Each structure stands twice: as structure tokens, then as C-alpha cells.
């Protein structure tokens, strides 16, 4: 099968358990897989190299800056930003083939991400639909380096956005404890950014925002239809929201 003119960029640190799945899912259509590793002490780099990826060591600069380093090393103009715990679905591969059957019409494409909690796909609540802007022309767009918590592309309301067919599979967590720890890390990053901008903690905002988020995700967005997993996700987001404002 002919490779498409795209580079896949993955940033890693101790992703031995998931990197093989990510790379294997894209190999059928991509010959340029760039892995930017920031200090892995497990077999992440060796696994990636054995699967044909180009691996580079890079001191951690934050999500956006580290991803932009990977974009600079990509061979192709179009870059797909893939996380180590994600994978292409068969439908997404077909969608990418369709886009590159001719010259792409858009400089940025969004894809719907199907998140998994402890092996189960989640189709309600805050997790689905989950649109992500991942395929883009690196000569026109890059990650905004002012964003340290969640990276965003520097597109604006006038940018025409294309839509990819198929889901991007996201294997978010295998356990509730791991996800809670991940949310705590994000909360601390958010709090640090908030403090740096001169904003203090606000208990009223913390608890009111946390309770509203739980109600919105679990009730209004029908998270309860995902059963126990839906409850655990909404609870984790309650903890995250409370923590980031406290």
C-alpha cells in the first residue's frame, strides 16, 4: 500500500505500554513517524525504533513547544499529531486516503476522538463527541506556545476547517486511580498558569463549578448511559475542576 504524504508526530515519556499500538495503527499509510522523547527510562525509544519510527531526544519544553519541535523534524508538509495512547481506526485510515486522493482542500482538519475508559468506549457525557484538530499544514499552522495545559493550534475563526471521516481511538486510562492522578496533574498545571497571571483561589467558584460540571456531564450530557464508567469520569472531572480553582 502506498504511503500518504503525511508525517505522524508523537511525543513520549515512558510510553512503553502503548507506543507500539500507536505506531502499528499508522504504518500502513505513513512512512514518516517522528517520535520526540523527553527522558523515557523504559523501552519506549527502542520499541519505537524497532517499528521504524525516527526517534529524537528532546528536553521537555511543555506540550506545545515539544510538539512544535517534532513538526520541524517532519518530512512532509501535512502533520498528524498523535498521542502515544491513541490509534487510528480503520475508518479514519479510509478517511485520510479520501483526503489525500487529491490535493487537500483545507489547511486544518478535525477528527472525532472516541475515548476509552478501562477498555470500554465512552459515547456520552463530556467525552463524545470529542473533536480534535490534529491534521494540519505545518507551513501555515503550529501549536500555540503560550498554552501549557492543553495545546491548541493557532487557527482562528476565519480558518476553513475540514472534517476527517472515522474516529481517532483514545485509550485514556485502564484504571480510575490512574485517571484521577492524570487529572490532578492537569489541575496543578492550570493552577500554576492561573497564579502566574495574578489570579488567586476562590472556594465558591471551585465548588460551584465542580458541582455544575458533574451535573452537566452526568445528567445533561447523559453520562449515566455509560453506566459506572460514566459516573467515574464525571466524578474525576468534579475533582479536577475543584482542584484547579483551589
Model description:
It is a single chain. The protein is α/β, with parallel strands linked by helices and 246 residues long. It has 2 domains: 6-173, Spore Coat Polysaccharide Biosynthesis Protein SpsA, Chain A, CATH 3.90.550; 176-245. Helix content is 38%, strand content 23%. It has 7 helices and 9 strands; from the N terminus they run βαβαβαββαββββααα. Strands 1, 2, 3, 4, 5, 6, 7, 8 and 9 form a 9-stranded mixed beta sheet that branches. α6 (203-220) packs antiparallel against α7. The longest helix has 21 residues, at 176-196. The protein is globular and about 55 Å long. The mean pLDDT is 94.
Question: Biggest sheet, open or closed, and with what strands and sense?
Answer: 9 strands, mixed
End-to-end distance: 52 Å
Instruction: Give the second-level CATH assignment, the architecture of the largest domain.
Output: Alpha-Beta Complex
CATH top level of the largest domain is: Alpha Beta
The assigned structural class equals: alpha/beta
Roughly what fraction of the amino acids lie in strands? 15-25%
CATH topology of the largest domain: Spore Coat Polysaccharide Biosynthesis Protein SpsA, Chain A
Overall strand count: 9
Q: What letter string, H or E per element, gives the SSE order?
A: EHEHEHEEHEEEEHHH
- Helical residues, percent: 25-40%
Number of contiguous helices: 7
| Poorly predicted runs | none
Task: Give the overall pLDDT as a whole number.
Answer: 94
The outline comes out as globular
Name the CATH superfamily assignment of the largest domain: Spore Coat Polysaccharide Biosynthesis Protein SpsA, Chain A
Amino acid at each position: 500500500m502506498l504511503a500518504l504524504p503525511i508525517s505522524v508526530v508523537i511525543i513520549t515519556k515512558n510510553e512503553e505500554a502503548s507506543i507500539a499500538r500507536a505506531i502499528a495503527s499508522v504504518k500502513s499509510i505513513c512512512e514518516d513517524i517522528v517520535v520526540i522523547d523527553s527522558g523515557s527510562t523504559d523501552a519506549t525509544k527502542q520499541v519505537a525504533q524497532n517499528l521504524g519510527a525516527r526517534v529524537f531526544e528532546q528536553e521537555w519544553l511543555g506540550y506545545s513547544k515539544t510538539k512544535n519541535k517534532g513538526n520541524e523534524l517532519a518530512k512532509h508538509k501535512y502533520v498528524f499529531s498523535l498521542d502515544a495512547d491513541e490509534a487510528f481506526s480503520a475508518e479514519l485510515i479510509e478517511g485520510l486516503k479520501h483526503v489525500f486522493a487529491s490535493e487537500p482542500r483545507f489547511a486544518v482538519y478535525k477528527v472525532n476522538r472516541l475515548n476509552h475508559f478501562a477498555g470500554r468506549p465512552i459515547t456520552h457525557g463530556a467525552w463524545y463527541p470529542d473533536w480534535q484538530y490534529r491534521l494540519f499544514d505545518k507551513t501555515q499552522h503550529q501549536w500555540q506556545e503560550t498554552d501549557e495545559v492543553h495545546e491548541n493550534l493557532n487557527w482562528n475563526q476565519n480558518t476553513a476547517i475540514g472534517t476527517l471521516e472515522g474516529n481517532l481511538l483514545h485509550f485514556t486510562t485502564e484504571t480510575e486511580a490512574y485517571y484521577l492522578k492524570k487529572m490532578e496533574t492537569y489541575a496543578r498545571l492550570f493552577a500554576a498558569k492561573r497564579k502566574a497571571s495574578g489570579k488567586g483561589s476562590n472556594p465558591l467558584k471551585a465548588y460551584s463549578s465542580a458541582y455544575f460540571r458533574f451535573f452537566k456531564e452526568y445528567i445533561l450530557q447523559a453520562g449515566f448511559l455509560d453506566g459506572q464508567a460514566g459516573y467515574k469520569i464525571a466524578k474525576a472531572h468534579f475533582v479536577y475542576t475543584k482542584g484547579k480553582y483551589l
